[in-house]
């Protein structure tokens, strides 16, 4: 984390700086892929073990999406929105690992603006591409509602959304990590525990909020208005 760990890049390859969150981010992606593989390699009609856990988690996300955007769109966007939720959740929780942010290459991914910005920009493009695919040229009519002179305001509103998504997630996680590390510097063993316990809750909330808002934006862009 900035100010509490290595500020220099983790490494430089062919003149390209490798960021400090690279090990954590790749570890999280490996965990997600590995657990998915374990849960689906020998699927049974009556699930057990890892398959049961994976099905429970995926079904929970799917039911949530179905309630917001309907069954067909929930199926279509489950891979993206489910990946958002679990990647952000594990990224947030990685900050609870002792030494996180102090070891080169091990920084909480969501405490870096470049990661949260990438997630926000992905939501932005998926939202508008999905709207165009579903409605064609008629999609752009919503920029003129409720009246044509609202066009500049509606455009600004759309551009602000990825910025808001990015900074909300980044600000909360960066601030949380800063507080935990500052407290740990003063009293390393006991003092950080209450904040770390709170981080279990706020980490899940931030993952849910990002996924929820992304769902709302995609739903709004692909909704059929009568």
What features would you describe in this structure?
- A two-stranded antiparallel sheet has the order 1-2.
- It has 226 residues and is an all-alpha fold.
- The chain has six helices and two strands.
- It has one domain.
Task: Spell out the key features of this protein.
226 residues; 6 helices; disordered N terminus; globular; two-stranded antiparallel sheet
Secondary structure elements and pairings:
Layout: E1 11-13, E2 16-18, H1 22-40, H2 49-69, H3 71-93, H4 113-135, H5 151-186, H6 192-222
Antiparallel strand pairs: 1-2
Helix pairs in contact: 1-2, 1-3, 2-3, 3-6, 4-5, 4-6, 5-6
In short:
68% of the residues lie in helices and 3% in strands. By secondary structure, the protein is mainly α.
Helix coverage percent: 55-70%
Number of strands: 2
> Main sheet?
2 strands, antiparallel
Distance between the termini: 49 Å
Structural class: mainly alpha
* The number of domains: 1
Shape: globular
Number of helices: 6
- Kindly provide the radius of gyration, computed on alpha-carbon positions and rounded to a whole number of angstroms: 20 Å
| Low-pLDDT stretches | 1-6
Question: Within the largest sheet, what's the order of strands?
Answer: 1-2
What pattern of helices and strands is seen along the backbone? Answer: EEHHHHHH
Nearest-integer average pLDDT? 86
- Please report which band the strand proportion falls in: under 5%, 5-15%, 15-25%, 25-35%, 35-45% or over 45%: under 5%
